[in-house]
Specification:
Blueprint: E1 11-14, H1 18-29, E2 35-38, E3 49-52, H2 54-63, H3 66-72, E4 74-75, E5 79-84, E6 90-94, H4 96-104, E7 109-112, H5 113-121, E8 129-131, E9 135-139, E10 146-149, E11 154-156, E12 159-162, H6 169-174, E13 181-193, H7 199-202, E14 205-211, E15 214-221, E16 226-234, H8 249-255, H9 261-268, E17 274-280, E18 292-294, H10 309-326, H11 330-359, H12 365-376, H13 379-382, H14 384-387
Parallel strand pairs: 1-2, 1-12, 2-8, 5-14, 12-18
Antiparallel strand pairs: 3-7, 4-7, 5-6, 9-10, 10-11, 13-16, 13-17, 14-15, 15-16
Helix pairs in contact: 1-5, 1-10, 10-11
Length: 391
């Protein structure tokens, strides 16, 4: 694998989501070519909104897409709020308008996933992309990684980056015998037109309501045209893990019966919420074999309770591109990439997992102690290790 320079070797990225396209964009910026294989016939993002925290914003700025991004995103000017389920009592609040840039060098934003994907895609040359290519097998047994596609095509490459999500084909080849298990939690997502949302939800705030066995997050996206809503509830016997599955507004409303009327009014305005069961996966002990590695959800799928899934994929992308650009030996570059990234993402996986219990406490002594701790805590200081990080 040391023959020839890396610019002459073939880099393949499997997956054209946010992590895969960010990898292609940073590789291109570093002067390296790659080919991105994506199973969908067009580059789109299912889902709805996401939080783009300062650690990700720094990297978007380095890609040169901030003007385009800010035209579609929403800057958080009110802040993060934790509210009590029954009456909306504010348990904790942080003024992001003045704190975020002062502490971390960038503001905090929210955005529609498709908008973020679009601005990253603008930095990827069109000839890097191969759409409508569904990979069914990754073979790492030979001298070079090989991918087999549903249409019968076989691609051999020098460097393989698996950015193909939580059900990654490349992950299966690297980490056999690491099955996912259902977490017992399901998530709902919906977009509500801002004109139909309660005034509380239209503020430029990331608001999180917590209560027994449930919590719900809402914030504006798409330049304020919509309110993104994500809710978490017991899964029961629901085990569908697909972002294309749907629920009814009545099903979502039933989960939050008795909660503050401003919250239930927001839910009533939602149309055909998406619903999926959260899978639980332990952190991997390794991401790489030779010149094959993993990135984003393929490497470190995490519960969305710190809103860092996409941010960590973008961080991965920036680091892997720099490692490959600086080291002519790709296997050594990928080892460096994994050594740099795995401790941080493992910590986030573990802390996101623990947050489910904390957010969903039933009313009682433990809940009251949690609420009192929230009232005294400085969440930005507590989580500075996440947001101040510069990949």
């Amino acid at each position: 694998m040391n023959s020839g320079s890396l610019t002459e070797q073939r880099i393949t990225v499997l997956g054209g989501g946010i992590g895969g396209l960010a990898t292609a964009a940073f590789l291109h910026q570093a002067g390296l070519r790659c080919t991105v294989y994506e199973q969908a016939p067009a580059l789109t993002e299912v889902g709805a909104g996401l939080v783009v925290a300062p650690n990700a914003v720094k990297l978007l700025r380095r890609l040169g897409v901030m003007d385009q991004f800010c035209a579609q995103a929403v800057r958080m000017d009110v802040g993060w709020e934790f509210r009590r389920w029954a009456d909306g009592q504010v348990l904790s609040a942080e003024d992001l308008a003045t704190s975020s840039k002062r502490l971390f060098g960038e503001h905090t934003y929210t955005a529609h996933r498709a908008d973020l994907l679009g601005v990253i895609k603008s930095k990827v040359p069109i000839d890097f992309l191969r759409l409508g290519e569904r990979c069914v097998e990754a073979d790492l047994s030979g001298p070079r990684p090989r991918l087999r596609f549903q249409n019968g095509d076989v691609v051999e490459t020098d460097v393989l980056i698996g950015a193909d999500g939580a059900h990654s084909v490349v992950r299966q080849a690297i980490a056999t015998g690491t099955p996912a298990v259902f977490s017992g939690i399901c998530a709902f997502r919906a977009l509500v037109p801002a004109a139909e949302a309660p005034a509380l939800a239209r503020r430029r705030s990331h608001t999180l309501w917590i209560g027994p066995d449930h919590h719900l997050v809402h914030y504006p996206v798409s330049a304020g045209k919509y309110i993104n809503l994500v809710a978490f509830a017991p899964a029961g016997d629901y085990t569908v893990e697909s972002w294309s599955a749907t629920a009814t507004t009545e099903e979502l409303l039933a989960e939050f019966e008795g909660w503050d009327s401003r919250l239930t009014d927001l839910i009533k305005a939602a149309d055909s919420p998406g619903r999926w069961a959260l899978l639980d996966r332990d952190p991997l002990e390794r991401w790489s074999i030779g010149t094959t590695t993993l990135l984003g959800d393929a490497a470190h799928p995490m519960f969305p309770f710190f809103a860092q899934g996409s941010a960590q994929a973008i961080e991965d992308a920036a680091v892997i591109a720099r490692c490959l650009a600086e080291d002519p030996d790709p296997s050594q570059a990928l080892r460096r990439y994994e050594d740099l990234r795995r401790p941080r993402t493992t910590r986030l996986q573990q802390q996101s997992h623990a947050r489910a219990h904390i957010n969903h406490l039933p009313d009682g002594d433990e809940q009251q102690a949690r609420d009192a701790a929230y009232a005294q805590a400085d969440p930005l200081a507590t989580n500075s290790w996440i947001y101040s990080y510069d990949a």
